[in-house]
Predict the structure.
Amino acid sequence: MTDEAVQRGLEDVVALESKICFIDGKGGRLIYEGYDIRDLAERSSFEEVAYLLWYGRLPTAPQLEELSGRLRSMRALPDGVRRILEELPPTTPPMDALRTAVSALGSFESTAPVAAGPTGIGGAMRLTALLPTIVSEFHRRRNGRAPLPPRPELSHAANLLYLLTGTDSSPTDIRAMDVALILHADHELNASTFAARVTASTLSDLDSAVTSAIGTLKGPLHGGANERVMELLREIGSVDRAAAVITGKLARHERIMGFGHRVYKVEDPRATILRGWSRRIGEEKGNLLWFDLLRQVEQVVHQEKGLYPNVDLYSGSIYALLGIPDDLFTPLFAMSRVVGWTAHVLEEYADLRLIRPKAQYVGPENLTYRPLGERSG
Ligand code: CMC
């Protein structure tokens, strides 16, 4: 037995060096490859951010065009994966369907990077292009509708919205989605990215790393929080009930989803940007209920617990107004974070060190082994 300090939840442990993303938890800043998220959300596109995270620099116009073209050309799902999705019961949680499909992808593609070890950015592009198609296929099938073919003339955000809603969206809705995708694309060594890097650090393949990450993102303490926020808003129902519902939950020591963060000690800068979009989309659609409820919830949670909103607080209110069902919110998170996961996996391959921490043993010692027939109780 050793007697070393245990960092529960690996809190504050610096596990590796990375050039991809910096979080200033005290200053409330998020930086991708040196660029402030506020500038990227204001001025760039998801495709530009994907290029930035994969290549470590912003693209020139021809480079961006090439990347967008490649993403557009990789959106079609292999038939074998489609058949697997058809076999899943319609009650399957969409995150489970996504995890299953991603883990099966390589088996149906002769050119897929299925071999263990380093794969190029092409593998990252392929996953990024395919995730919206997978989720859309499963979602439409479970509702008894025929799948929609992806639209190669549309941007990533526009195609994704089309696939998830089945309709053409307005330019403002598409821009809201683009911004949400930019904001979720990476977040340093969060739980799912860590899971992806742990998998990659064994020299396993990219699809396995992303499969690990999807399973990790699913949890309500991570990517599953946005769906729970909408559940809470529907439970509250009207602004005048917000204070009573929230104080009741806090008195019962329940967590309020969309608040608190391991790294940010002030407001998550992504929440600030999404709050603005929640109001804007609410105004455009003539429905400010979710926004007004969220403002009220924010006030009560801050008053009672001193907690600030995180990225998951406002995202669901935007997605709901864009016509996306609640249980697709976390898959939507995955559709963006896949860029960060794959960027981190490629970084891991480039400077590989098996990730293998230690545990403090606290179990029994020196027990005497008794044969099966001599044991009781
Ligand atoms: N509601 C109520 N109390 C909370 C919350 C919350 N959302 N978050 C933290 N606290 C309390 C917690 O109960 C604890 O209080 P006490 O010291 O009295 O026991 C204190 O704040 C510290 O919490 P912690 O769990 O030790 O902090 P952590 O760093 O482990 O937790 C967290 C971070 C995100 C898991 C947590 O804040 C949480 O559960 N939030 C709700 C879920 C959520 O919104 N998750 C999305 C996170 S951001 C996006 C992502 O990464 O996917």
User: Anything to note?
Assistant: Residues 112-118 have pLDDT under 50 and may be disordered. The radius of gyration is 22 Å. The pocket of carboxymethyl coenzyme *A is lined by residues 9, 190, 221-223, 225, 255-262, 305, 307, 310-312 (CB under 6 Å). The first helix runs from residue 37 to 43.
